[in-house]
From TrEMBL:
TM region(s), chain numbering: 7-30, 36-61, 68-90, 96-123, 135-156, 162-181, 209-228, 251-273, 280-297, 303-321, 341-363, 391-414
Lineage of the species this protein comes from: Bacteria, Bacillati, Cyanobacteriota, Cyanophyceae, Nostocales
Major facilitator superfamily (MFS) profile domain sequence ranges: 1-186
Key words of the record: Cell membrane, Membrane, Transmembrane, Transmembrane helix, Transport
Primary subcellular site in the record, as a coarse category: membrane
InterPro entries on file: MFS_dom, MFS_trans_sf, TM_effector
Pfam family, one: MFS_3
Protein name: MFS transporter
Highest taxon of the lineage: Bacteria
Subcellular location(s) of the protein: Cell membrane
Membrane topology category: Multi-pass membrane protein
Length: 437
């Protein structure tokens, strides 16, 4: 647990810097284009390489030194930030430059995420999987507290360059923590004992492992059905707030900071509580509650309502992510987790890559025109969402958040999902299975 906490502390500092850069670049892209599609394309190109390399990364994580893979990913992240900074300082940064740079950043970032995720079951006792995952969630939400507020204040006053230097400085913390720790390596476990698998069999191992167990299949399908509408609403969040506030980075930063506080509080409470004894309840109840509060966010018209709704929705994110991941960690042997988690995450990154494009197209080409004063949806929904800029995005946002609530409710009717912990008992994962120092 000590090694996990050292890595965790370094990641908090580094992630604050990274979130500041992402937030500032979001404002910069909106200032340059005023387009939800342009913002969506940045998200798409960040996810695209993950689709291409995730299965290969899963094999690498199970075969090579996980600490070294995480260090390499940190170095690439620094180089990407330097490239953006140099282009910006020379007044040559364009939106299409970001598309290229985030391709590289996203690919190596996925390698780091897999290496980190697959190491948790080796660094943390089984009984503390949910707590460890909640602390992991606290990294992102701690950053979400400070980064938007800092970036929202610094960007309009001191410019983008100040944020770049802060980001580059914070990378040092994560790099040092990875240098000083030692992460245990699992023994490599193969699907076939004679190790005669073809490359295709190796690449599809994780999918075959999931498909062979109906409850793991149900887990993957349920999370995918949740992720599609949730990621569409996530892609719409920033342009929706910006459109409805005249492009105010301060308001967007304040609302996002409220979400960060909620996420941290949710993670802290979960780390103390430990979650539901039946972790599937944490996943499904989290889906339902998160969707309800996100719907309130979309329906809100004022800053206080946005802050409260986003705060409440974010308190539940650690619950459903940590509960779900704890089930995966507890049921998959450590030597297989790189490939199996890669398969599960590949589904997620594919959804995350496609949904911003869907969100941008629907927002700019369908819902925004339809919610203008003369649009076809204005007579139906105009009294609720208005007919000004951002009304169409808000209607689409609320439609998607309602879908996430329905996924959680539907999950309780699916026996293979509802009883996943009975059908796949934790004792499939011995306490120190396959670990070598």
């Amino acid at each position: 647990m000590r090694t996990f906490l050292i890595i965790w502390l370094g990641q908090i500092v580094s992630t604050i810097g990274s979130f500041m850069t992402v937030f500032a670049l979001t404002i910069w892209v909106w200032d340059q284009t005023g387009s939800a599609t342009a913002l969506a394309l940045v998200g798409f190109f960040a996810q695209l390489p993950k689709m291409l390399i995730t299965t290969f990364a899963g094999i690498a994580v199970d075969r090579f030194n996980r600490r070294l893979l995480m260090i390499v990913a940190e170095v690439v992240a620094v180089l990407c930030t330097l490239a953006i900074a140099i282009l910006y300082l020379n007044q040559q940064l364009q939106v299409w430059h970001l598309y290229i740079i985030v391709l590289l950043y996203g690919g190596f970032g996925q390698l780091q995420v897999l290496a980190y995720s697959a190491s948790i079951s080796l660094l943390v006792p089984k009984a503390k999987f949910t707590r460890a995952e909640s602390l992991g969630a606290a990294v992102n939400y701690s950053a979400a507290i400070f980064a938007p507020a800092l970036a929202g204040f610094i960007y309009p006053r001191l410019g983008m360059q100040s944020i770049f230097w802060i980001d580059l400085t914070t990378f040092i913390a994560a790099f040092i923590t990875l240098i000083i720790v030692k992460i245990p390596q699992p023994t490599v476990q193969e699907f076939n004992s004679d190790n005669t698998e073809s490359l295709w069999q190796k690449l599809t191992f994780g999918f075959r492992y999931i498909w062979a167990n109906p409850s793991l299949t149900a887990m993957a399908i349920a999370f995918t059905l949740f992720a599609i509408p949730n990621d569409i609403s996530k892609a719409l969040y920033s342009p929706m707030i910006l459109a409805r506030t005249g492009g105010s980075s301060e308001i967007l930063g304040t609302v996002t900071t409220a979400a960060g506080i909620g996420g941290v509080i949710g993670a802290i409470v979960l780390s103390i509580w430990g979650g539901f004894q039946r972790r599937i309840h944490g996943m499904l109840i989290g889906f339902i509650g998160h969707g309800i509060f996100r719907t309130m966010l979309g329906l809100g018209q004022t800053l206080p309502v946005w802050m409260v709704a986003h705060f409440c929705s974010s308190t539940l994110i650690p619950l459903f992510y940590s509960s779900s991941n704890a089930i995966w960690y507890a049921t998959i042997p450590p030597g297989l987790q790189g490939r199996v988690l890669a398969a599960d995450q590949l589904i997620g990154v594919t959804v995350a890559a496609i949904t911003p494009l869907i969100a941008g197209f629907l927002a700019d080409r369908v819902f925004e025109p339809a919610m203008r004063p003369t649009g076809i949806l204005a007579p139906i929904f105009g009294n609720i969402f208005g007919t000004g800029t951002g009304a169409g995005m808000t209607l689409l946002f609320v439609s998607m958040t309602i879908c996430t609530v329905l996924v959680g409710i539907f999950g309780y009717t699916w026996r293979a999902l509802r009883k996943v912990e009975d059908l796949i008992p934790d004792n499939k994962l011995p306490e120190n299975s396959g670990v070598v120092d």
